[in-house]
Amino acid sequence: MTLEIAPGADRDTWLPAHLQRLAARYRAAGLSAAAAEELAEQQRALAGTWTVADVRTDGRTVGCVAVGVADRDGAPVGRIGEVWTEPGHGRLRPAALEWAERWCAERGAARVEARVTGSDPLFDGYAVRGQNRMKELTAASVEQGAVTARPMTAEEYPAWRAQQEDAYVFDMLRAGSHTEQEARAKSAADFARMLPEDMATPGQALLVLEAEGRTVGTGWLHHGFLPGVTFGCSLDVLPEERGRGFGRAAMAAGERAVLAAGDGALMLNVFGGNTVAMNLYTTAGYRVLEESRSRDVSGGGA
Asked: Which parts of the chain span the membrane according to its record (predicted)?
């Protein structure tokens, strides 16, 4: 058996099939069909930049690899969009991944990144930089707790936003996914994109969490992020209130707000290295939908 990785595959032919495979993996991970298709569609613009190579054995195409290199603050970062083979040819995937890593390294990338949906042992050697987790909600499953949520006031907003931007930078640095310069640039850009009208941005709910007559945390929910799905941008307990049992109750307050807005599922992101949050989400019933992973390929190897 001979293996050949042949760059130059037709990206326009590959892209629809890739998005279908991605949507199928999202459905298998627990998303509804409508939400899975929309989340996959969000990758169309990025996927249009990939270099696609055919995976061939004995002269027959049995899979594909999608790779790219992006500039991040002047440093090239490799990206692996897909390593796919037909059923019965999975044994070729490790060699295809090695080719993808070399391709990125040869173009100056010291690190390669990949989004991994569901369980894929191929990327077990990659460090987890972040996770998207999700939980389906019903009125019967959401706990009633001591923490309640109210809308944030205009006076509270500036301090909250400054704190959230700094916390976002800290999370990226702890995860090892960005340098400090990269993290600060990404934080500023992401907040400008997600809250272009500050508190008046449609679909965004900014909350203050209260218990025992005082503020114990804040929340930021993006309702309708996907059909029937709210994205929890943050549900935070204040540092001075941690360790008092408010964590799970704060999440329950956010879940009640999701149901009140008409959505039936809550998706959350957690950065790699934040084991406290990961453990909390696991015990609260949030399963892993997708992970961001990366590894060092400096020197041109895996």
From this structure: none
Query: 96 vs 3, 189, 290, CA distance in Å?
Result: 9, 34, 21
Decide: helix, strand or coil at residue 162.
Answer: helix
How many whole angstroms separate alpha carbon 205 and alpha carbon 207?
Answer: 6
Who contacts 238 (Cβ-Cβ below 8 Å, separation ≥6)?
A: 215, 216, 217, 218
pLDDT tens for residues 30-50?
899 999 999 999 988 887 789
How far apart are alpha carbons 195 and 210 in whole angstroms? 23
What residues contact 277, with CB distance under 8 A and at least 6 apart? 270
What's the pLDDT score for residue 299? 59
Task: Find residue 159's DSSP bridge partners.
Answer: none
Distance between CA 236 and CA 171 in Å, rounded? 13
Residues comprising the chain, all counted = 302
Spatial separation of the C-alpha atoms in residues 117 and 101, rounded to whole Å:
19
Q: Which domains, and CATH codes, for the chain?
A: 3-124 (3.40.630.30), 136-293 (3.40.630.30)
Residue 240 pairs in a beta bridge with none
Give mean pLDDT in consecutive 10-residue pieces for the chain, a chain of 302 residues.
Answer: 88 93 94 96 85 94 96 88 96 96 96 92 95 93 87 96 93 86 92 94 96 94 96 92 88 94 95 89 93 85 39
> The tokens of 36 are what?
């899975």
Q: What pLDDT score was predicted for residue 1? A: 64
Exposure class string for 205-214: b at 16+ Cβ within 10 A, else e: bbbbbbbeee
47: Cβ contacts below 8 Å, ≥ 6 apart: 15, 18, 19, 66, 81
Tens-place pLDDT, residues 211-247 = 989 999 999 999 999 999 999 999 999 989 988 889 8
pLDDT recorded at residue 301: 41
